[in-house]
């Protein structure tokens, strides 16, 4: 699915890193399914817990104020992973696939927040996806398709 994206990153000599929560590394996995991915993917972190989001640079104050399931948190994720790896693009994904999180009771149970940080232009591109598919794998693919579409427009 991400062949055009990887080739576009290669052609433009750009790199990408991801910090994923609900998608559990599925975006990075799909990128690495494409020949040449090692030229563009610098690093990927799966930060399923608040603790590791914070260790990767997400502000605890942002999580406390807006919740871990928010665009503000997704933006912190995308910017911090880009800065940590010195990648041209950082992708942050956080949200829920219809589940209740006892550690984070706030936030819609079916919304996934996507933030792409463009380091070269110091700009965020943000969007949301409603996780309405029947299972987690289909919802992950829905999010990945959205990220792919966003990046193809940005690059």
Calculate the mean pLDDT score and round it.
93
Helix content: 40-55%
State the strand order across the main sheet.
2-1-3-4-5
Please state the second-level CATH architecture.
Alpha-Beta Complex
Main sheet specs: 5 strands, mixed
Radius of gyration: 14 Å
- The secondary-structure element order is HEHEHHHEEEH
CATH superfamily: CinA-like
Do you know the CATH topology?
Answer: Maf protein
Briefly note the structural class of the backbone.
Answer: alpha/beta
Q: Compute the number of helices.
A: 6
Straight-line distance between termini: 17 Å
3D shape: globular
Unreliable stretches: none
The number of strands is 5
* Number of domain units: 1
Structure description:
The protein has one domain (3-154): Alpha-Beta Complex (Maf protein), CATH 3.90.950.20. The longest helix has 19 residues, at 136-154. It has 6 helices and 5 strands; from the N terminus they run H-E-H-E-H-H-H-E-E-E-H. Helix content is 41%, strand content 22%. The radius of gyration is 14 Å and the shape is globular. The relative contact order is 0.19. Helix 2 (26-32) links the parallel strand 1 and strand 2 (41-46). The protein has helices spanning 3-11, 26-32, 50-55, 60-66, 71-85, 136-154; strands at 16-20, 41-46, 89-95, 111-118, 123-130. It is α/β, with parallel strands linked by helices and 155 residues long. The two termini are 17 Å apart. A 5-stranded mixed β-sheet has the order 2-1-3-4-5.
Supply the key terms.
Maf protein; 6 helices; five-stranded mixed sheet; 41% helix; alpha/beta; 155 residues
